[in-house]
């Protein structure tokens, strides 16, 4: 195997209303068609509710809401990106992320990703803004996202 192939990370660019998220493909369990989450009382605006997926109730998050942007319901191309959680919590094995369209596969290498400078405070759920393949994207902190969702669910 060549060094170029072994040093790439297969990833997905997830289109939000205001930004794009960049996630490693391994973090994604499945991409499903958008369906309106069932709302629950006492949840923050960014936690839209739950969908049933493979006999799990998955909390669905609007990253736009987490970034203090307006929350828009996706159109007919909308998707929910079901992601694995990282901490082995049996009560919260997956989190859904709302996407405005189908994510696009990208190969990330040291040659096509650069840090992006921004004056905007991205908050605790963003590890780093980047430029990948000439496009701006945000790398989310999935550990922090999981903690925020757990805290919100504990308030229900």
UniProtKB/TrEMBL annotation:
Domain CheW-like: 8-151
InterPro entries per the UniProt record, alphabetical: CheW-like_dom_sf (IPR036061), CheW-lke_dom (IPR002545)
GO biological process, one term: chemotaxis
Coiled-coil segments on the chain, per record: none
Signal peptide: none
PROSITE patterns the record matches: CHEW
Name of the molecule in the record: Chemotaxis protein
Native source species: endosymbiont of Escarpia spicata
């Amino acid at each position: 195997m060549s060094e170029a192939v072994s040093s790439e990370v297969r990833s997905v660019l997830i289109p939000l209303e205001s930004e794009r998220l960049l996630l490693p493909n391994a973090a994604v369990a499945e991409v499903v068609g958008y369906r309106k989450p069932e709302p629950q009382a006492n949840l923050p605006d960014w936690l839209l509710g739950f969908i049933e997926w493979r006999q799990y109730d998955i909390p669905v998050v609007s990253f736009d809401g987490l970034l203090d942007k307006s929350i828009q319901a996706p159109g007919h191309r909308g998707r929910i990106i079901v992601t694995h959680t990282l901490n082995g919590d049996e009560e919260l094995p997956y989190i859904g992320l709302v996407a405005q369209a189908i994510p696009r596969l990208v190969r990330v290498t040291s040659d096509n990703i650069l840090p992006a400078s921004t004056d905007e405070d991205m908050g605790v759920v963003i590890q780093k803004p980047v430029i990948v393949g000439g496009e701006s994207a945000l790398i989310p902190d999935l550990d922090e996202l999981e903690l925020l969702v757990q805290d919100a669910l504990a308030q229900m």
